[in-house]
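Anyone have tokens for ABC transporter permease? Sequence:
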Amino acid sequence: MFSILINPLLETLYMVLSSAIIALLIGFPIGVLIYISEKDSLWENKIINNSLSTIVNIGRSFPFIILMIVLSPLSRYVIGTSIGTSASIVPLSIAAAPFIARIVESSLKEVSHGIIEASLSMGATNLQIILRVLIPEALPSLILGMTLTLINLIGYSAMAGAIGGGGLGDLAIRYGFYRFQSDIMILSVVVIILLVQGIQVLGNKIAFNLLKNR
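Reply: yep, here.
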């Protein structure tokens, strides 16, 4: 029974980690832009701020199962197929990117405005403030946000199994639902729970160490 779990577990890890990296590359700069383009921020720009905020809000509004269906042509174009583990990375990445953008924006807002003003008074440029002040100061919060994103992606990847995405969700559906093997379905759920707990504990530990070493 445990040998059946190995490949689905690896597929889930592959989907989650790959989509998290891609979503981070997309969502992180968007979150920074939303923050710095706000009123009275480093680079106030109402048009850019409103446009990006609207795009992020629309992206977060789609239920993931619908998003997978809507983006199946894009998955087919990018990957060559709309079914399978690799194809699921496309909608997973796009679903997580707006979430990361909001996490980055919220984390940067937690940084004391006094630190930013002090950096400006010393002649720091906007880019230097972003890279050397905002991101380092917000890093513990960003780590916790990415931990939450990874956990959400695990849940999304399980839903991806419902339409042929592979992973532990697909295993639970194929054996637990279609073949009435509830023991495998329960074991799949237990593995998902352990995976979530492990990521949460690791994320909390990293964030705590960053706060302690300041």
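DSSP finds nine helices and no strands in the chain.
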